[in-house]
Predict the 3D structure of the following.
Amino acid sequence: MNTEQFNEEIAQSSAWVSVVKMEMARVVVGQQELINRLILSLLCKGHVLLEGVPGLAKTLSVKALAGTLRAGFSRIQFTPDLLPADLLGTMVYNPDEHRFSAKKGPIFSNLILADEINRAPAKVQSALLEAMQERQVTLGETSYALPNPFLVLATQNPIEQEGTYQLPEAQLDRFLFKVLVDYPSREEELRVLELMSKTSGTPTTSPVVTEEEIEHSRTLMNQIFTDPAVERYIVDLVRATRAPGKLDRSLDGLVRAGASPRATINIALAAKALAFTRQRGYVTPQDVKDLAHDILRHRILLSYEAEAANVTSDNIIDHILSKVPVP
């Protein structure tokens, strides 16, 4: 198959992306970057962490995405008193059969909305970590596979610190993206007001895409070409996060730890997904640059000096992108 034929097949197979966006637009006003990242996560089977103040349609966007799919959906409200059994399920004794049987929890679904994930204590986070990484849950002595696809779409509030727990770095590394959700523009907020004042109830989305269509898209996505020069560029970007002082002396001492090789893999995979949604059969350096912040920002641990100087991980990524030679 030549390049032109492959691009045509990608264009046909990616038609559902625009349909899903149109369906979600019936419910969610604006937040295009958030919607795009949710669709990429669906293609990559990657988890997403959404961070923003309350009321910015984080939960609504995840619900809207779930409504467009013919897939299972569970919403779990994380609280300080949440127990692992509330999430995973537990073993229940059956007196008639004189044995224990597994009662599966809400984690056994395709899309999991972990609302305010940073409110749950360490035991719950460790239980969720096994599900996110291994895509299985252990109840008693038996491990149960989770449904396919299985995505954790988590939200957290960055400004409220009471009753919250900082997510461990090992768990943060399992998220494909960390998306910062900002306030809508004035025009978008007017549209929100107009939409909510004219509807009798909360609008919902309808199923418009099947798992078979998405699985076929993943198969095509894996065939998208990444030039070795682009692969080297990805590796150079990730390695620069570990010792940014070697690249720019002004960044010396600002980073305690950089991104792991999992970031390298995720950038390469997400760049293919982005090229697919842009109906292209190859990855460009711009695809990589467009994804760098959302994939790297939660994987860079800043030093005390950086925090004291109000330097953010996004500032570090900006410097790295400007210094690493683009192929």
Observations:
- The mean pLDDT is 86.
- Residues 224-323 form a domain with the Helicase, Ruva Protein; domain 3 fold (CATH 1.10.8.80).
- The first strand starts at residue 47 and ends at 51.
